[in-house]
């Protein structure tokens, strides 16, 4: 006996040590990949790349509010000055012109290669005449006057053309020299981080840098009634960091609160510190084994698994509650009585196996986060059950007993007797009525029952999302929802494709199907295009002749344009512009943001802007236009729709697998109980509880998400234990005390309801979803199971 | 979106070193007209009359005399004003162009292009439009923020000479001369430091 006990303990310690070793060495990841498919289709791969490293994820939108316009403008200018010196940001912009000496030199030097207007016709006599005439006309307006000094070198106005070309994106409004919102109540700026948006640590540092720069800039203001300028940030990185903090804070606060409550409950019941400590062994061992299993099975552990896993195996706290309370039976009956292991272990084992069936339905999911949760809870529950069965008895002193809770159980039994007095027929009838009502509610709301948008899982509140949308509209920033992506083996090939796509898209801009688009080729035309432009430049003698003819009737003398002739001749013999020439100019950040490069694949991104700010884009027409233009290597991506489709596929898949899991569970019970009637009696309260909770949520206007589904799995997992205990009570020859069984179930149930009930008070939607499903569901499962349980032979033993 | 500011870089670049948000005249107190000479009471009277007008609509003919060109270029169209800060210059000949000044932002619109400039970022452009707008508004303090004022003549027939105060503004405009009769503007002449100048002649609108 002693030897067996020692062997068990050594084995357990070895297992725990190994699990701890694996857990300590495991790789933990907190990025989005838990939500992204592991075997993506090509379009999904684009989506994944975009969500991880896309240009949109690197934007931080900065708004300055309160105070007066002048104070906001001053803070904006001072803050942006500081941030531009910070290498964490690849660009920072508030509308104020920067001293982009290199930009100017770059654009002016290469104007005949960069301007779209350059062609052989442009430099014919007629073309020159038209172009120079327009430039002269421009001189009559204040804006054109700015170009007056350039006339001798750039009579065809190519620099103005390039600036128009680059300015195709919508510009925000300006006041006092900085960007402001449409209603001018906010000063706006945009920072682009060097690090990718999915790198939360880098994003967090960048946000801190912005706050520090703001504090410094705002500190320079004289204190005054109009100078109370406030900073507000938005954007994907900001949301990600805020969400992480929020979830961490909520998880820590709620864990502490529920720990205190559950510990207080258990202490009140056990009146024994050793029992309390031992009672936590199954769940802690289970959690450790769960994480280790995930680390071994998947190579890396997602943050979501760590965050939610422990709630999924909360059932294992129940195991020790059952063990301690129900063991009293043995204590009362002496050695002659049968042990807990003989009496109740088969029931706990069956309950554990039904839970495993439920969680196994998460394993085949395409959602890596769910797969990990599935493996975690299965291995965690098995480990916890084994610890309860073998380790706890080995650790307990022979005469160990907790306080007798029989009186408590007896009071509940009496209460239950009162309810059961209404008769079995009535109970069945009422149950059917309740089920029908729930089904009617669910059927009525079937169209809106499930939320199929990925944003349903987003921890970002609707208000924050609206604010973000407003800032984007004010900044004229595409929220990069719709993209055309062209791919190819090298930079030149994708720039050529981007140029062909741009010609098709320009047609859509002209007929107002889309509002505009960006393209990397706006910054750097392909070599082919540059070559065409360079070879279209006429020789010096030809140009001189054309110019002479062109200036006929124009108020400009040819001898003033000597520098123009020299510049054209120089460009004819100059090298083409490469991406290396862009380095050091501010154009490079814009260019870089639209180019993705991985191993042997290059992608050029052409973000589309809708014709009406915030309005939809008719993507079918975009696809058709690209097809007509024979841009075969282009793909159209609606990020929101694509991510929603992905999430909807996770959801329907999870629903299918859950039903399969429920079937497996039924088969398991049929084999174990060998009676369809008993199986029906075990399952009825669980089904009723799930239906009631789903109907309740639907009535409350909640649209169900994948986390609600996981919550329902948990109701079945936890509730099956309750139902099986009642079943065992009714059918076993030696049932043990019903009062003790009831007491253990009620206390286990109370700890579950406390733990999950607290989650409902969180600010994080996924936690709320779990809490509001499991807390009422677990309670109802116990209630229905207790009321519906047949009064078995345990009845007789009632004191 | 980050592209948009490139226009500003380019435009801002071409006239001297670029600069951040530097409103041409900060909120410094306008130079007080100390011992007001007699003419200044006439100026006040003209300003008061101008300020009374809420709307104005006149035709203009504008000539630009530029050294780089052999002969002046001429344009014509209509000028509309709505108190206090909306000024619209619609050029009809030789090419249609609409120039709209509202709340310190200048929008230049042509058949195929539209440019928006924040005048605070372009102090060089400011005197071209603000001189006319502030005069039409009868806003003496706005004029005094940008220019040194000199008034000659009488209310019936006056000349207002504006000389920029800020060095940045002086780079593009050396002097603005506005001639008028009571609350009517007759001529606006803008002289540039390089000797180039423009002359705008105004008369009551006959356009539909």
The overall average pLDDT of chain A, rounded, is: 82
CATH A-level architecture of chain B? Clam
Overall, the morphology of chain B is globular
> Given the structure, what is the number of helices of chain A?
33
Strand elements of chain A, count:
13
DSSP, total strands of chain B: 11
**Percent of residues of chain B in helical segments?**
10-25%
Q: Which bin fits the share of residues in helices of chain A?
A: 55-70%
Intertermini distance of chain A: 35 Å
What are the low-pLDDT stretches of chain A, counting only 5+ consecutive residues below 50? 792-799
In the sheet with the most strands of chain B, the strands line up as 6-5-4-3-2-1-11-10-9-8-7
Which architecture name of the domain at 405-444 and 675-799 in chain A does CATH use?
Up-down Bundle
Q: What would CATH call the class of chain B?
A: Mainly Beta
Instruction: Name the pair of protein chains with the most residues at their interface, and give those residue counts.
Output: A-B, 65 and 58 residues
Looking at CATH, the homologous superfamily of the domain at 405-444 and 675-799 in chain A is Multidrug efflux transporter AcrB transmembrane domain
Described by the principal axes of the CA atoms, the overall outline of chain A is elongated
Q: Determine the number of helices of chain B (DSSP H or I, runs of at least 4 residues).
A: 5
